[in-house]
């Protein structure tokens, strides 16, 4: 058999001694040989790294009084066991699928002590304590850490401090770090950042990256922040892979705005993110989402939000839901949006609960389930998300997900109204004005509606305008109606713009002004309102409020006609046939007549029937002509009836 040797630098446990000789000595109970063999298995030197075998031989050495073995065994049992080699695990899985019995036998031969080692904090504490009591300085520092954190023992800051002080006398950097942390955070003593500084400085000078980070936080967060002095410590800690320091150093660099610093910051955040440091992951997601320091990249942002969500961050899951709902940075997939909203909602995110309820209520990305939607609206309301109160009111009012219950609806609306929600005030106002669950109409309804309108809620402005318009014919009512339609129109509401166009049109008697009327119709038409486009076309034909311009009239008629306005289609047919404002085109005119006729306009049906009967625009078709004339006559068109006689 070939002899295996482990060769590495002194101080690591195994000297240049054959592994087989070490095993023989260890089996005889030699503590030094057992320690060297355990170290070989611990570090994978000369043998395959294996936690159970390392623990086995280090235990032999530790029981023999070997202080270094006791210390290493404590560290090993605290969770520092080497992972089973990937190739070994893959081999065993593949072999097991072929022949489980054979695979188990081979595993027992190659790894007689097993392949994985479970942590045992109580045993780790006991062995570390034995090493510390024998004077092992590193073990003393480790024991201080165990005591401070209650790992395998009862937490005791006093004992932790005592062990840290003993180790610090021997110059152990981790001991000064531990002392500095206890004093800094006031653990077992009064918090005193100034008294913590010497300990942390000594530890940082000896290369303790975490101590450098704590020093930086003291310098940055003290009564007199000193960024210049903190920066070198932050850099030291970041270079030492302290994730929190990498994150903090990145934040400093982002503030400078310099391109080189921004690139450094991105690299630092990524380094911290690779350690699953959630604040860095979230900062990367936000950085690439909003842009500014870097070019916006929603795909990159979605990647980091997913990482954060997988770490349990509810807001990241909610944001991913929004991305999938809108198709930003990821495909637009409502079902995925539902999945992420649900995950965030189950973690207590109120807005996610609300969104999930909306998707369930409307059957978006999931089968419609109004009862479950109601439940999630309640969850959102419990988180005091005010729009959920309004939706609960509407669900109870309309009997969705539950029996219709106006009283319960009013209760939810009142809760939302008390929180200042204008749409809740409007809903409650409409219930009162209609007498739903409130008895006779009362003044409170109008008051609530006015409060919502005065808060800038456009639907309430329009409803209040309608209420004043319907309530009477006094000058005050008409003036108030005009005022609220004007407010809504100025807020950008297209329907209110059209209403203003009608109210200011000559002949209505409220506030006639042809130019003002035309201006409102034009604003609404430019915003895509087909009725406004039609009205503006009529004004261009007549020259009322605007210069007479048949070409512009044709353009506006075409917009309304293409949006399905029957009268606009008919008027456009007439103008196109006559060549008014456009080149005469009988075929195009006939097409517009037909579209208006199909939309149920008797005048268009009659005109189409007449042209088909006369053959003056298209080839004569008496059968088709009769069908259209009959439809027009059936709708009461007198000329159509006369032609059919």
Provide a quick synopsis of the model.
Helix content is 71%, strand content 1%.
Report the radius of gyration as a whole number of Å. Answer: 41 Å
- For the largest sheet, list the strands in their spatial order: 1-2
Query: In one word, what is the shape?
Result: elongated
What is the helix tally? 36
Percent strand: under 5%
Explain the overall architecture.
This protein is an all-alpha fold. Among the domains are: 5-124, no CATH class; 456-550, Serine Threonine Protein Phosphatase 5, Tetratricopeptide repeat (Alpha Horseshoe), CATH 1.25.40.10; 564-645, Alpha Horseshoe (Serine Threonine Protein Phosphatase 5, Tetratricopeptide repeat). 71% of the residues lie in helices and 1% in strands. The chain is built from 36 helices and two strands. A two-stranded antiparallel sheet has the order 1-2. The termini are far apart.
